[in-house]
Amino acid sequence: MEQQASKHEQVKQHLHKEITEGNYEPGEKLPSEKRLCDYFKVSRVTVRHALQNLENDGFIYRKQGVGAFVSNQNYKSNLVRLTDFAEDMRQAGLQSSSRLIELKKVDPIKEVNEILDIRPDMKLIQVDRVRLGSGKPIAFDTTWLPPGYGQLLFDEDLTTQTIYNIIEEKYEIPINAGSYRITAANANKFISKHLKLSEGDAVLEIDRCSRTTGNKKVYFQKRYYNPTHVSYVMELSRTDESQGPSKQGLPLKEFSPRFAK
Amino acid sequence: MEQQASKHEQVKQHLHKEITEGNYEPGEKLPSEKRLCDYFKVSRVTVRHALQNLENDGFIYRKQGVGAFVSNQNYKSNLVRLTDFAEDMRQAGLQSSSRLIELKKVDPIKEVNEILDIRPDMKLIQVDRVRLGSGKPIAFDTTWLPPGYGQLLFDEDLTTQTIYNIIEEKYEIPINAGSYRITAANANKFISKHLKLSEGDAVLEIDRCSRTTGNKKVYFQKRYYNPTHVSYVMELSRTDESQGPSKQGLPLKEFSPRFAK
DNA sequence: TGAATATACTTGTTATAACATGTTGTTACA
DNA sequence: TGTAACAACATGTTATAACAAGTATATTCA
Fold it and tell me: Which residue positions does the secretion signal occupy (chains A, B) (predicted)?
């Protein structure tokens, strides 16, 4: 039995669908609240609730006395998408693939076991991969998983699928949270070989730990990007008032990896 | 004549003040909506509007049937504060200072002039500084400004004041937007000397361009962080529903430089 | 004592209604 | 023709009201 969503949620989804399907041009005005009330046969409270949510998510913006308009940007407001390598590549117009270097069970690593919140004597599943964009090596990464999650990977094709995808879509383990650390490192012999760099060349290192329900750690990954191909770009901008000066910083409008070919 | 703020705004500000002043512990439950209605002598619509805004800003979270609670994080929701080195240091509990290496007028630099959107033959003001946290070198940065803005710096004490501060607070030129690029680089002889590193060591490079009203570029800066002292940390987390799976990525809860001593 | 149930309380949803405030286009007047 | 006043319309604010749904606590019964 399917749970019926609330009315404001239905209205939101309907409008969201129309926007993402391109039925409205960026900047185009949505029907007035009154019209939406009549169309959906709901009260103005409900319509405004839906519009409020769409505004919070950055799909529309509103002007008093004028109307609600579809945002011209395709930025996902404060949503950050750096979860999936394949997705990143797709957006950059590159074909994503991976070269599996190794998939093996390894002895516990003190630092990693602590991060993953598992017993210090528990073995780990380790995945080493080179990540390719249209055939060119973009990044090298090593992923560690607790055995419970790690064993899910042994029957999967890791050259075309991302770990994120296997975990979340095939096994329906939702990734609800993650922490990321961005730093710089010198490529060692192993990494530089795979990224076709010289030993000692600077690489962009991203450490991340993804968590599922109950803050349970699913995997920890160290990824090394070739900085000539990848950098992270951020756009901050105050649209208008917000309030006062920049005592609170600027709202993040975009944060994404940028790829150079 | 002072403009009277709306009631829900007053309620929000009142609660916000109490939260930031520490009258509520993180995780502590706020009074129920009913109580807030009675206390502020407003309707439930108004109270809920205020709570909704506080929730959007990340100061509280709510649980149906239970109540509203003060967030334990001091994250500024989707506001990102990486504008000011001094501020960053203060939050890390370190004393901020700068060592001015050079402040000079230099010949146009093709790449920089293009970024700053000024004529290719226009000279630039260049500021080289070592940024210190409690006396230890944390970063080296070079800033280029168009002569108009640059000349404002010649009478200022750049060892204690940040450029951002001088521009925005003293000359009241608001910084409304900025773009940032995070990448990795090998420290050259010059940089490594100032950061007490070895030549070739990897450093975290942040390029940023700050803009004022009308998207006018105010300055362009290249900053090199010692990665053993500084990395950028990001926290993404879905509080609850949002909607469906993570097709849209995760909301950013925190993004800030992290300092190790 | 332990589990099921009832109850009170809390937030979530939705409708109706009135007025405030901002915008735009039209109309009337100089 | 140009401007000022006005009307129509849009979103913003706020109150009242009722019910839905989730949670916690007290109560009852086995």
Answer: none
